[in-house]
Write a structure and sequence with these properties.
By secondary structure, the protein is of the alpha/beta class. It has four helices and 16 strands.
């Protein structure tokens, strides 16, 4: 089972990863959208019974990706922290420990709507924070899926999912990559996020991620 799938987009090669990220081999850049670190902590502050440990799980997934794919730059396409309450001590401690393990890695955050509310990551995380767009080869990296006048957009924000239908009432909802003519979408990386149902359309390529692999949807 192959955990990545190479695709051609805007005259360039991208690898779609089963762990809901994108690798740009020519730039040795790992792209992650909508990590939403500290979302569970924010919900617990509101009295909601949500699971613990989601931040650590997400960081361990990033560790595995960095070990597999030679990476010069890790770029977050918005929504790094979920809310002001995400600045919880345990969340920040986990992030600080992770950053210490990857001190030489260049990390960039393109601000998203949740980053505006949550505030920038603490300075000791050594994350460069920029406004959209960030140009990378033929791509404009953004959080919001708004067209760019000269570059193909890679964005997050939407949390795209696609529903596969089986026999009877059986169905399976999976995160998906959406490759359109001018704007393409990454699935949400975070473990504790919702999803927006995507429909097939002409000229749209859909790739679902699940069970450790990525595969194209036909028809």
């Amino acid at each position: 089972m192959n955990p990545e799938l190479a695709v051609q987009l805007a005259g360039d090669t991208l690898w779609l990863l089963a762990d809901k990220a994108v690798y740009h081999p020519a730039e040795q850049a790992l792209l992650i959208a909508d990590a939403h670190f500290g979302k569970a902590a924010a919900y617990r502050r509101l009295g909601q019974p949500v699971p613990h440990g989601t931040t650590q799980v997400n960081l361990e997934r990033i560790d595995r990706l960095l070990a597999r794919y030679p990476t010069q730059r890790l770029i977050f396409l918005g929504d790094f922290l979920h809310a002001p309450q995400s600045h919880a001590p345990a969340t920040l401690a986990a992030l600080a420990g992770w950053r210490t393990r990857h001190a030489s890695l260049e990390v960039v955050l393109i601000r998203g709507n949740h980053d505006t509310r949550a505030g920038d990551p603490p300075g000791d995380l050594n994350i460069e924070v920029v406004d959209a767009p960030l140009l990378l080869g033929p791509f404009a990296l953004q959080h919001e899926p708004d067209p760019h006048p000269t570059h193909h957009v890679l964005a997050g924000h939407v949390h795209p999912v696609f529903t596969l239908h089986g026999r009877g009432r059986q169905s399976l909802r999976l995160p998906c990559f959406v490759l359109d003519e001018a704007v393409s979408l990454l699935p949400a990386f975070g473990e504790f996020t919702g999803g927006y149902k995507i429909q097939a359309q002409p000229h749209r390529r859909l790739y679902v991620a699940g069970d450790g692999a990525v595969w194209a949807l036909n028809g």
